[in-house]
Structure formats: structure tokens, C-alpha cells
Amino acid sequence: MPLPSSVESLLNSQNIHYDLARTPVDANNQPLWHDRHLREVGAAKAVLLEDDKGRILALVSADTLLDLAAVQRQLGRELRATTQDAVRQFCDTYSLQSVPALPKLAGLPTLVDKQLLRRDSLLLDSGDDSQLLHINRDDFQTVLEDAIICDIATALEPLEEDSGPEMDEVHILGAVSRFTRRRIRQRLEETLELPPLSETAQRIINLRVDPNADISDLAQVVETDPSLAAQVVSWAASPYYSAPGKIKSIHDAIVRVLGFDMVLNLALGLSLGRSLKLPKDGPAGYLTYWQKAVYTAATVEGLVTAIPRERRPAFGLSYLAGLLHNFGFLVLAELFPPYFSQYCRMTEANPHCHHQPIERHLLGITREQLAGTLMRLWSMPEELVIALRHQNNPDYRGEHHQYANLIFVAERLMAQQGIGGGPKQEIPEALFNDLYLDKDKAMATVASVGESLPELDHIALLLNPH
Predict the structure, then answer these.
(1) Could you state, in order of their start, the residue ranges of all structural domains in the chain?
(2) Which fold has domain 160-195+276-463?
(3) Using CA atoms in the order 386, 388, 391, 392, what is the torsion angle rounded to 10 degrees?
(4) What DSSP state is assigned to residue 132?
(5) How far, rounded to the nearest angstrom, does the alpha carbon of residue 269 sit from its chain's CA centroid?
(6) N or C: which end of the chain has fewer CB within 10 A?
(7) With contact defined as beta carbons under 8 Å apart, do 306 and 442 qualify?
(8) Which string of DSSP letters, residue by residue, matches 313-354?
């Protein structure tokens, strides 16, 4: 396949000698996802940034994290990533699939991470997902005439290492002391200064451990919280569940549609989600908190159903884990408001990265560490603690690992189908085997969720109407 004509013309006009490196295929003879291929070979990638003065181009290796603060220090400008719609418009103008790592194409001021120039030859994003440009360092420097060479990137691999839950409290206390004005106290729950559990949440937790609790007990607890009751009824009445007839009460929602276990865990998830304020800021192009919660819970629900009955983890706890999987996002926003805004801008500028390395780079902790620790402080079920803490570790095989692994599979399947932000990455085959989950059935599950997005969006709107 030929290069995009705009790229080919630029290279020829500069007398740049180049070769083309085709995108390799996976075990199923499918081309690797573009972000994954760039990362695996350490190719140079381009990021469009802008402010009210105009756009610039930043070139970094795809196995690094673009440090937006370093860019801003270098230029003295408050830059942020160009919106996805604007990037698509840029690519359409030049008949491209992605922004090529060639600054002269659009004549933009350019910053280049100096690590790229330590290589004898380089692979560059060509603007065509099926192939990369291969050029030597001298030719690359010719293209970089007038560019600013500086340190603007950090290696990703060290930021992706998980030190283990035994260090979580140390890391959290350290981050709180460095990035907030809160005084370090002996007890972590006092140091965090987070709101206490609501009375409704506490009563639902008590119901969870009461072997004699029945439908009447649950309905009574939910009905004492009018807002929660309205949300549960609206959830049961949503088109997603296609319930026959009108849902008139919590009792109806439990008996006719959702079931005791589902309503119990749904009510708990909603109560916890309401315990912290939803941040007004957020990475552009990513799902809102409740959208992501609802999509992931629905995907986990489908995955559990696809597992043979005798091998399934507890359905209700699995659903609750999916609904609360991103609770740490709310905690980050609550504890570190100024740095949360920086996190959002860094996420926009690094769409090839997961959130964990960005959070470690900025704060030294991740939302998973915060969420797992907080769930334990609140005496949540251990299955939920494990699910939230280890959801991004596909190698975790400790007790209750199925709950964490289900979230991992659900999120990666969603990303592969373009549901929400984040890079597309493979799921280890061993994970499907350990979960007794047929891969084709898992793919069918996420496809079904994709077809139900309008109905799921309606549910998410009910949970966050403002």
C-alpha cells in the first residue's frame, strides 16, 4: 500500500531516503492495533497540542509518556491536547489515518524528545496504520530543521510496575503529605479526610451479612432513601431490561426484574458512588463516571453469564465490582483537586497510555491503590477489595482473583471495540482459560453491550442527571 500522498510528497521534496515497515500480524493473521505496534517497536509518534496562540507538534517515542508539564515549562504556554474531533479533521485534510511524526507536513512549531535522536535509525508513524517509516538519524534530523530538541518524555515501563498492596498505605500517606495541605495522622482513614459512609450504605452492608435478610428488609432500606429508590425503580424500568408492565415499587423491581442480589448490590454501588462528588473536569473523549460504571457492570454481567454455572464467581459481587471499578477516579478528584486537572490534561495528551503510569508519574499512587484501601477501611467484602485493587493486573491469582480478572477482561474488550478511551491491547489467553470463559462468547458479550449503548446511556443519565 503506498504512503499517503501528502507524506510521500514531503519526503520526496526533502530528498529523504526511507523504507517502509509493514505492520505485523497476530496469531489470527490480523494486523496489530496501531498503538500496540508503535509501542512494541518504540516508534516515534506525534501528539498535537494547542492553546489560544495556536498548535504545536510534540514527537516522542511510543514507549514513553509525554510529560505535559515539561512541554509547558519549555514553551511557557498552558498547552493541552487537541480534541479528538479536531485531530480527525486534521487527518482528513491530509488524507491520513493518524498524525505522522513529520513536523514539516503542516509547518507546525515542533518539540522533539531528545531520546529519539540517540538512535542510529528510527521508525516513525507514517500516518498510515498499515506501515511505518524507517529512516536513519541524519535524514530524521533534516526533517527536524527548526524543531526544538528537549526532554519532554518519561519511560513508561517503570511507571507500569505495581509494587504490591503491602506498600499501598505508605504510598498513599506519602502522596497525601506531598500534594495536599493535610497533616499526616497515625490512622489512614483520618488522613484521607473522606466523607463517612452514608446511613443507607451502612444499612445495606448490614443486610449483606445477615443470612435472614429478605426482600421486605431490602425494600424497606431502599425506600427510606427517596433518591436511591427512584434510581432503582428507573433502572428496572429502563428499556435495557424490557420489563413487562409498569414498575411501580421497589418490591416490583426486586421480584419482577432485577432480583434480590442485584438490587442489594446495585443499591450499595449507587450509595457509595454518591458518597463523593462527581468531578466537573474529566479527560476529553472519555466516558463519564456513570457511563463507564454502567457499561463495565453490563459487560461483567454478560461475562459471568457466559461462564459455566459451576465455575461462576458470585453474580452479585461481580456486578458490584464492575459498577464500582472506577471508584478510585472519584477519590483522586476528591483528594488532589489541582493535580486532578493535570491528570486530565496528561491523559488527553497520552491516549496510548493507561491511566496507571500517568497517575504514578504525577502522584506516585494509582486510583486502584486508593480504592482498594478505602474499601477495606469501609469493611467492604474482601472480594470487592481484591477486585478494585488488582483489576489491572492480569497475573494476579490470589484469593478471589476472578473478580479482578473479570474487570480486566471487560475493560480490554470494551477498548478493543472502541467503547470509551484508552489504547487497544490484547488479553492473555491464559486469563480466558483461568476464568473458564469461552473467548467467542466473551466477544459476543461485548458486542451485545455495544448494541445496547443507547439504553445503557439512559441508565447512566438517570444516575447523573446534571
Answers:
(1) 5-155, 160-195+276-463
(2) Hypothetical protein af1432 (1.10.3210)
(3) -120
(4) E
(5) 19
(6) C
(7) yes
(8) PPHHHHHHHHHHTTHHHHHHHHH-HHHHHHHHHHHHH-TTS-
5-155 is a CATH 3.90.960.10 domain: yes
Residues forming a β-bridge with 47: 58
What H or E segment, with its residue span, contains residue 312? none
Q: What is the mean pLDDT of residues 448-463?
A: 87
Q: Which residues pair with 32 in a beta bridge?
A: none
Q: Is 192 left (phi over 0), alpha (psi -120 to 50) or beta?
A: alpha
CA 349, 351, 352, 358: dihedral to nearest 10 degrees? 60
Place of cell 471508584: 327
Cβ distance 43 to 62 under 8 Å? yes
Burial class (CB in 10 A: 0-12, 13-18, 19+), 263: buried
The pLDDT value recorded for residue 394 is 93
Q: Which residues partner with 65 through β-bridges?
A: 154
**Amino acid type, 399:** E
**Cell numbers 431490602 label which residue?**
218
φ and ψ of 59, to 5 deg: -110, 125
Q: The pTM is what? A: 0.85
| Cell matching residue 12 | 520526496
| Listed residue (82, 125, 152, 108) closest to 348, CA to CA | 82
Nearest Cα neighbor of 69 from 61, 80, 60 is 80
In whole numbers, what is the pLDDT of the chain averaged over residues? 87
Kind of pairing between the strands at 54-61 and 44-51: antiparallel
> How long, in residues, is the chain?
466
pLDDT confidence of residue 184: 44
Q: Which residue blocks in 121-280 are alpha helix, DSSP H?
A: 137-143, 168-179, 188-192, 199-208, 215-223, 226-237, 250-252, 260-273
